[in-house]
Amino acid sequence: MRVLSGIQPSGKLHLANYLGAMRQHIELQDGNEGLYFMANYHSLNTIQDAPRHLELTRDVALDYLAMGLDPSKAALFRQTDIPEVTELAWILSTVTGKGLLDRATSYKDKIAKGISPSMGLFNYPILMAADILIYRSDIVPVGQDQVQHIEMTQDMAGYLNRSVGREVLKRPEPRLNEAFIVPGIDGQKMSKSYGNTIDLFDPPGQTRKRIMSIKTDSTPVDAPKNPDTCNVFAIYRLLATPEETAALEEEYRRGGMGYGEAKKRLADVAERLLGPAREQREKLMADPDYVEDVLCDGARRARAIATEVMADVRDACGLATGKDTHR
Ligand code: ADP
Ligand code: TRP
């Protein structure tokens, strides 16, 4: 199966980005053809400071590699290294009704938050569809918030296929994971725009501090507690083994354990994951040439597919001249 996904380099990555997106990407690199990219055309909608944009893009690459992406298995690349994506986005925009984009909930949410709408933000789902369709991807692992975009991608593949009279694009399927919505330290959805995140690569003391400040209710230490409504437990179960989860659940229900103890356990399982990753990231930071080589190699692999699919799309649309001036 060809698996594709992307992460916008629009800020420091946090635990919910990992649990809701990146962890699945890394798991799926085994036994599949993985294509993962930094969506830096997308993040242009929010990041307009050039040096910062370069740094954030590099940071997401470092995060992927430090968390376990293996470049000998999956291709890791920058979206902007595949210019065919923007060409396909244009072609898709010619067969897509404006009404489809008017229904995009993530656009509506952003407008409701007072973000002023650029055409880039409005056209976001078309660019995202092009990202997916340019590689004839089979599976797109994403969080719940992106499912509507995948459904729109399926629609757009259908529009173009119908318009040209053949299956030039492949219909992809979304793949959701168990981390439905990871809470932040205040109990709302963890998101960088709410300032409630536990970042992946803070110094260890800071991560522990953030975990110790997770909001809990005021059930006394001795009383039984409900793991199903506890923010600490909601994150713990995503990081701990099934045995560890069952053991902590039992202690919640029995009573006699305070939330402080549960937070300490959460900090320990988080450190088990993040400690080695932090070390790995330090090593990668000291070797920028290696990271650049990984990204160039990833782009070469991805572009080989994209140029072929794009040639087929041009042909199907009556845009191919017979002379290959694009390579
Ligand atoms: P943020 O809300 O911090 O800006 P993004 O919107 O950039 O995060 O999210 C990138 C990806 O990380 C999303 O597509 C989603 O899959 C995942 N994600 C983000 N926040 C959460 C969350 N609280 N729970 C689960 N997954 C999340
Ligand atoms: N929109 C995704 C997000 O904000 C990022 C993204 C861009 C993406 N292109 C994609 C995800 C293609 C999957 C496939 O999280």
Q: Radius of gyration over alpha carbons?
A: 22 Å
According to CATH, the homologous superfamily of the largest domain is HUPs
Number of strands: 5
Instruction: Provide mean pLDDT, rounded.
Output: 95
CATH architecture of the largest domain: 3-Layer(aba) Sandwich
Listing every helix as H and every strand as E from the N terminus to the C terminus, the arrangement reads EHEHEHHHHHEHEHHHHH
The CATH class designation of the largest domain is Alpha Beta
Structural class: mainly alpha
What's the arrangement of strands in the largest beta sheet?
Answer: 1-2-3
Number of domains: 2
Q: Identify low-pLDDT runs.
A: none
CATH topology group of the largest domain = Rossmann fold
User: Ends: how far apart?
Assistant: 27 Å
Which ligands accompany this protein? adenosine-5'-diphosphate, tryptophan
Strand content: 5-15%
The main β sheet shows up as: 3 strands, parallel
Q: Supply the number of helical segments.
A: 13
What level of helicity do the residues show?
40-55%
Rough shape? globular
